[in-house]
# Entry
Amino acid sequence: MTKLALVRGSPNVVDGSAATGDLALEADVCIVGTGAGGAVTAAVLAEAGASVLMVEEGGYYTSNDFTMRERDTTPRLYQEGGTRTTKDTAIAVLQGKAVGGTTVVNWTTSFRTPEDVVQTWHDKHAVKGFAYPDLVPHWEAIEKRLAIAKVDVGSLNANNKKLYDGCKALGWEVDTLRRNVASCLQTGFCGLGCPVNAKRSMLVTMVPDAIDAGAKLVFRARADRYVVKGNTITSLEGTLLDAEGIGLTGKKLVVKAKRFVTSGGAINSPALLLRSGITDGPVGERTFLHPVVASGAFYEEAIHPYRGAPQSAASHHFAHRQDDVGFFLEAVPWYPSLSASAVPGFGSAHLDFMKHASHTALHIAIAIDGFHDDVPGGRVTLRSSGMPVVDYPIPAKLWSTFRFAQKRLAEAQLASGATEVHTLHDPSVRITKKEEIDALVDAAPYEPCRVPVFTAHQMGGCAMGDDASRAVVRSEDLRHHRVENLWVIDGSVFPTSLGVNPQESIYGLARLMATRLAARKA
Ligand SMILES: Cc1cc2nc3c(=O)[nH]c(=O)nc-3n(C[C@H](O)[C@H](O)[C@H](O)COP(=O)(O)OP(=O)(O)OC[C@H]3O[C@@H](n4cnc5c(N)ncnc54)[C@H](O)[C@@H]3O)c2cc1C
Ligand code: SF4
# Structure
């Protein structure tokens, strides 16, 4: 395997921001996006001998750029500079933008798709093209390449340990989880890009594998639209961006290819289809977010919630709640700017929270959307600029889930010794005793923009399934139902959310489908 620096310096890697004129490129397969879905697909196809071109709007950063400072990294590595929200601004949308996609900034938690979720897709969403056992060898291969391994209880940071201990004390299911890291130095800054290349993200694994195998990459190049004639895409038109990825250079990109794979992630993949006039089926609909509510807790002892592996324990005790929406519990890192923007209050009230930052643990409940008829997810549409926006009105059933989950988070935190629990409402609900939880949380507003809700897991919008009226791509190969040379391979194809952090589900599915695509005759 070639060294990363040599891969980056390869003549196959083109910086769109430095192009002195328009770019006209050709390949057998053009892949838009280099995240979990795109990078795996590119590596599999290139290793099978196809000529592959990856098109990525983000920058090609290195570990030297990952300074562990939010002001340097957040605007560069996140969609819309980290300011993306849903249409009514009620949900903050964290999503990556870089060579390597969101895997560059994710927190390394690695779960296979739960077997019952794959079965639900088969039974209720006409996903007949594969079954759970078909994914297993692909997960095994990915786990080996990305060094995915389970964390020991002894290596949990204090933030995760408090969640773990609280769940244990209450008799709830909780376990350590698996991470895709090798020689992790526990800096805690996975969310700003790994400064030592310990995180086995797509940036340091499948993207270099693809380039090593002959694939080309053009970055700082945004795919604007496919040009479609009848049922065939004839070319991709794009725009070259400046070095910061914000301004346009005025130069254009045109790609001719036999096959086009859309791997821009949920929200951006359906948007590319919509901009291209490929509006068949429910494109953009049933976009799921695993919406999150958070609970902060003060402890006597130092927690330093910005140090150590950001996520290393999870509880799925409340994942299955029959008619109610399930959720799972995890910890999140509490970086200074992130916490300053999320904690409630102004002036001295705000300062009071920030003074406690090093003694604060931050735990979240992640709602499992898409399994109930009255929790149908959101819908991606286009702004007048052509950029996407997801309209996700939070249904009543989710608000009641948040309220229920907020109480469980408070119980777990008090059970692990918190002296005070606080919600992120403004003003915050502050809880010091178990007996106060119900009354205080019941009195708090659970309404749009009255309590912070965020998402780091976007899924759906180009659902797979064999009924073209309910799905955008086929489940046997993720090819578009009508457009004969268009595939979608990323998190947007899931017909529901997952109930676990999504990256490994995407890796496994992408590897299975790219392998089928590589075996396909022209
Ligand atoms: C802060 C954070 C923490 C997370 N932690 C975890 C975790 O611990 N475990 C886990 O499983 N998941 C985690 N996730 C989520 C996980 O990383 C994503 O679900 C996964 O990477 C999505 O893969 P994807 O291929 O669908 O899209 P992405 O990985 O988002 O890749 C899409 C790429 O396409 C590019 N792109 C989009 N549109 C265009 C266009 N028009 N032209 C050119 N390029 C385009 C984007 O810039 C991006 O680089 C986290 C996410 C965030 C934000
Ligand atoms: S915690 Fe480990 S994987 Fe995450 S950024 Fe630090 S060294 Fe890298």
About this structure: The two ends are 29 Å apart (CA to CA). The chain is about 25% helix and 20% strand.
